[in-house]
Amino acid sequence: MINLAKKRLLLGITGGVAAYKAAELVRLLVRQNVEVQVVMTQAACQFIKPVTMQALSGRPVFTDLWDNRIDNGMAHIDFTRDIDVAVVAPASADFIAKLAHGLADDLLSTLCLARMCPLLVAPAMNRQMWENPATRRNVAQIGADGITILGPDSGAQACGETGMGRMLEAEDLMAGIEAFFQPKLLQGRHVLVTAGPTFEAIDAVRGITNSSSGKMGYAVARAAMEAGAEVTLVSGPTCLKPPAGARVVNVTTAQQMLKAVNESVNWADIFISVAAVADYYVLNPSEQKIKKDAHILTLELAPNPDIVSNVVNLPNPPFCVGFAAESENLHEYAEMKRRRKNLPLLAANLVQTAIGGDDNELVLFDDDGDHPLPRAPKITLARQLIAHIAKLYQKIQKDGKSA
Ligand code: C5P
To answer: Checking CA distances to 233, which of 29, 37, 103, 260 falls within 20 to 30 Å?
Structure first.
């Protein structure tokens, strides 16, 4: 797992209204202790002042190929020699055209041509410019040249139109940069993840659910994407934004979750069941809101299907990973659950530390015993879990054993 701290990043800003988002991106990068060197084109300086970027990055900003602050006059060479990654955000249609054709007529385009590090670009332009055949050709060309393209997004544009071409938000760019550095341990694999709670209706407004924010499952889906997998995320009701690029199936009840899983499972190499599925559903829920009165109300509950066990018992199951939330005796209960459900791997957490927050701690149980993962942000734990899954999965592939 790769940490961004102490990485050296060159941020190029070109002329587009989305330049304001680059300021937020610098703030997020600096917060993660990334060393950011900003280079701006002349057009970018029309949208945002270099002094803003200097204040946020804590370094002088360069805009000119002929800047005499560079002793040997070779900024275009010097700037990318010790850099881990260059990111151009926003990248205008004009700048992408320059990259596609190898033009080098200002500082930023020259150092992109002279660079020895990977380059990520975040396009930002009006939807007609994005859809123009010339831009389509240029984007395809820079992709073929090994440049990673982050976004764009679709939605409302500064010009008043709506469509494809707006730059990703700073947080999404940050996620894209982090993803770029993660090892591609699951490249080409298909991963199916369930996340969040399920909700079983009692009447038109009330229901039975489990307390689950979905944060751990969404982090696992994101970590699998970062590792190069194609991901389907079957999610119960949450307030979370799914990771960019994942196929998302939203469900409410356990029955719907089972159906969605069954529809995708044949395609999956790995199934990670993070969802906190409600154990029971209400027989005969009322379509109308039940009126309150002084009498005791009795609900008839029937057990829900066990989704992960259904998958494990398929004739040709994917590699299955379960989760367990326990309030006590974590080791004993989790290992018992792993054996009962016949899972090669189970990740267990204590409900007291796991639910709702951004941090967690996990213990992984497999045939070799237990592997504690100390307290950390959920995305960090998810990346560690994915690394562990990739190791076991590769071993099974090599030994020719089925999960
Ligand atoms: O038995 P318990 O619900 O604690 O098991 C937890 C594991 O089983 C989790 O991986 C959860 O997603 C999965 N599960 C399931 N279907 C259920 C209940 C739990 O897939 N009905």
So the answer is: 29
Across the chain, how many H-helices and E-strands are there? 15, 19
The model's pLDDT over 350-376, given as tens digits with 9 standing for 90+, comes to: 887 767 788 999 999 999 999 999 999
Q: Which range marks the domain in which residue 362 is found?
A: 190-399
**Alpha carbons 124 and 159: distance in angstroms, whole number:** 12
pTM of the model: 0.88
Residues 219 and 335 occupy one common structural domain: yes
Q: Is-contact 303 279, C-beta < 8 A?
A: yes
List residues near ligand 1 (CB under 6 A): 194, 254, 273, 275, 277, 304, 306-308, 322-324, 337
CATH code at 84? 3.40.50.1950
Number of domains in the chain: 2
For residue 307, how far is its CA from the centre of ligand 1 (angstroms)? 7
How does strand 8-13 pair with strand 35-40? parallel
Pocket-testing residue among 273, 312, 337, 351, ligand 1, by greatest number of atoms within 8 A of Cβ: 273
Give residue-wise pLDDT tens across range 115-125.
999 999 999 99
13 beta partners: 40
Domain check: are 148 and 25 in the same one?
yes
- pLDDT tens across 65-83, in order? 887 777 666 666 777 778 9
